[in-house]
Specification:
Shape: globular
CATH superfamily: Glucose Permease (Domain IIA)
Order of helices and strands: HEHEHEEEEEEEEEEHH
Number of helices: 5
Helix content: 10-25%
Number of domains: 1
Protein name: M23ase beta-sheet core domain-containing protein
Structural class: alpha+beta
CATH class: Mainly Beta
Keywords: Signal
CATH architecture: Distorted Sandwich
Strand content: 25-35%
Distance between the termini: 19 Å
Largest sheet: 8 strands, mixed
Strand order of the largest sheet: 1-2-4-11-8-7-6-9
Number of strands: 12
GO molecular function: metalloendopeptidase activity
Radius of gyration: 17 Å
């Protein structure tokens, strides 16, 4: 029986993990990074009215904080676009970074689409690249909460080499209203969507959506073995 696209992609990502270049320009390791947990099960987070206040207590001077794949979160209740559809399962990884931090291409790709998703608590400026990993294995990477400058002079089909400068992290005033960070997501099948793709799913849709959006740890190489759905 033929494997579905998501299963083929997960297998190919597993075989090719050593081929990906660091999206921050340097590897993420236990020496410079820590796992970020803003899930409903984080009891420390529950002490704070806003998740941003909790995140500010973390040691950003010495570590980059990232995580969130497959997490159930309640932070999206502030936006009706999430709450009305009961979306609460995170499909990508969030990486806390300073405004204007450069982001680099992890693998040879070309611009599939881009747009400024400028509604409150949306992605803000977003770039989606498409990649050919192996024969008959095609996938996409999404970069959300970028600066508006990152979209200037982009063209659909434009090629980005491995390690090439792709974009910059956006400020809260332009990135959808979030504290500066990168939302990074792998997508197996974009369907007909362009410039946007859900980064959060409902509990009902989560198994299918997580299978279509494999764990970004395959590319990031941190913090542990990728979670497979």
């Amino acid at each position: 029986m033929a494997l579905d696209a998501g299963t083929r992609l997960i297998a190919a990502l597993t075989r090719n993990q050593q081929r990906f270049s660091p999206i921050l320009g340097f590897p993420l390791t236990t020496q410079n990074a820590r796992s970020l947990d803003i899930s409903v099960s984080n009891k420390e987070l529950q002490k704070y009215k806003r998740h941003e206040d909790y995140v500010r207590t973390l040691d950003h001077a010495n570590f980059i904080w990232l995580g969130g794949y497959g997490e159930e979160r309640n932070i999206y209740a502030q936006s009706t676009s999430y709450s009305q559809t009961n979306r609460c399962i995170h499909l990508g990884v969030d990486i806390t970074l300073k405004f204007n931090t450069p982001i680099y291409t992890p693998f040879l790709g070309r611009v599939h689409s881009f747009q400024n998703n400028n509604q409150p608590f949306d992605y803000g400026p977003t770039i989606i690249l498409e990649h050919d990993l192996e024969e008959n294995v095609h996938f996409y990477t999404l970069y959300g909460h970028l600066s508006t400058v990152s979209l200037e002079n982009l063209t659909v089909g434009q090629t980005f080499e491995v390690g090439q400068l792709l974009a910059y992290i956006g400020d809260k005033s332009e990135n959808g209203g979030w504290n500066p960070h990168l939302h990074f997501q792998i997508i197996s099948d974009m369907g007909e969507m362009k410039g946007d793709y859900p980064g959060v799913a409902s509990k009902i849709d989560a198994p299918t959506m997580l299978h279509n959006c494999p764990d970004p740890q395959f590319i990031l190489g941190f913090p542990e073995k990728p979670i497979i759905y």
